[in-house]
Write a structure and sequence with these properties.
With 352 residues, this protein is of the alpha/beta class. It is built from 14 helices and 11 strands. The protein folds into 2 domains: 224 residues, 3-Layer(aba) Sandwich (Rossmann fold); 78 residues, no CATH class. 48% of the residues lie in helices and 11% in strands. A hairpin with a 2-residue loop joins β8 and β9. It is globular. The two termini are 40 Å apart.
Length: 352
């Protein structure tokens, strides 16, 4: 079977950056974009099994098809029609096939060569991934959890117009899980752990290290963020949206050049005192980062409410429309209790 290279992490941790830097490598096949939670969703669809059943196969394939469509790739509709025929033929003989075999059929059709195929899945469960794909390699991205979770908040609530979702509140557990997996697998030769901060500060050193890990040659194009070999972040304004979502401040100068991101801003102004306390309780972080200890602080609805309206945190969007303020207020109550509930579950889990 083909060897896969999975890029893993919690999101907002540099997985997109390392994916874009590897994109131009002639020794790799690249699935474009982030096939978000392909592994986790397949497990969920298929009864938490490493097998794929025909009735769920189209949903899993849709993750990859949509990634190619979003990237406006050269792969034609006929490629995916061929994949569908091959899968239908395989499922006619078997009730189910392994996820490894399933992804192998897809990638062999898209990439007839024998090169390693890179897939960015934005999931932190390295251990389960390597059990399913034992011959694969994993590039696991870490980021300071303060700026990562701050970036996650900006991604979801930059403007206070999101009224639902567990994405931000679940990021505390996801960080715990990411650092735990990294700690347990740090000596596995199939795993390379990279800190986002190191990748930005010493891009060439870390890309060289990554190329050696993948047994491919380093090329100068690996210092440029590309998609299908074409530069996509040529100027600062083209990358501002992603920088903002990752927790950087719009207006920062000289953040991007042809060799990647060179300046780091450590902003965690969107985090409440309770958020900071919860972050300081995340185990295994100290194995990779030195973080100050924050004092215990209860979850305050007043602070939570002001933040949701955009009055806490740098460069937040605000509204003074009475109708919208009423709507935000109602959903702030729901989001506050959701946040409190998920954090309580996390803290209980941490104390086991």
């Amino acid at each position: 079977m083909r060897r896969f290279v999975f890029i893993t992490g919690t999101g907002r941790c540099g997985s997109k950056l390392i994916h874009g830097l590897l994109d131009g490598s002639p020794g790799l096949n690249i699935i474009p974009g982030a096939v978000s939670n392909l592994f986790a969703e397949s497990l969920s669809y298929n009864g938490f099994s490493n097998n794929v059943y025909y009735i769920n196969s189209k949903r899993t394939l849709a993750n990859i098809i949509n990634a190619f469509k979003s990237a406006k790739s050269i792969h034609q509709k006929s490629n995916f029609e061929k994949i569908t025929r091959l899968l239908r033929k395989r499922f006619a003989k078997k009730n189910c096939i392994s996820l490894n075999e399933y992804i192998d059929i897809i990638t062999n059709t898209l990439f007839p060569n024998k090169k390693q195929t890179v897939i960015n899945i934005e999931n932190e469960n390295i251990i389960g991934l390597l059990q399913t794909f034992p011959n694969s390699k994993v590039i696991h991205m870490l980021r300071n959890p303060l700026t990562q979770i701050n970036g996650r908040y900006l991604f979801r609530y930059n403007a206070p117009n999101n009224y639902d979702g567990m994405e931000f509140s679940s990021s505390f557990y996801r960080n715990y899980n990411s650092f735990k997996n990294a700690y347990l697998m740090k000596n596995d030769k199939r795993v390379l752990i990279i800190k986002m901060e190191n990748l930005k500060k010493n891009t060439e050193i870390n890309i060289n290290k990554t190329c050696k890990f993948l047994s491919i040659n380093f090329n100068k194009i690996n210092l440029i963020v590309t998609e299908f070999g074409k530069k996509i972040y040529n100027e600062l304004h083209n990358y501002n949206q992603d920088l903002y979502a990752m927790g950087y401040l719009p207006g920062d100068q000289n953040l991007v050049n042809d060799k990647g991101i060179k300046k780091t801003t450590h902003d965690f102004s969107c985090l409440t005192p309770n958020d900071l306390y919860i972050v300081s309780e995340i185990k295994y972080v100290k194995k990779f980062y030195k973080l100050r200890k924050f004092n215990k602080s209860k979850n305050s609805f007043f602070i939570f409410f002001l933040r949701h309206l955009g009055f806490i945190g740098k460069k937040r969007s605000k509204t003074f429309n009475p109708y919208k303020l009423i709507k935000y207020s109602i959903f702030s109550i729901y989001l506050f209790f959701l946040d409190k509930h998920l954090k309580n579950i996390f803290l209980k889990f941490e104390n086991i």
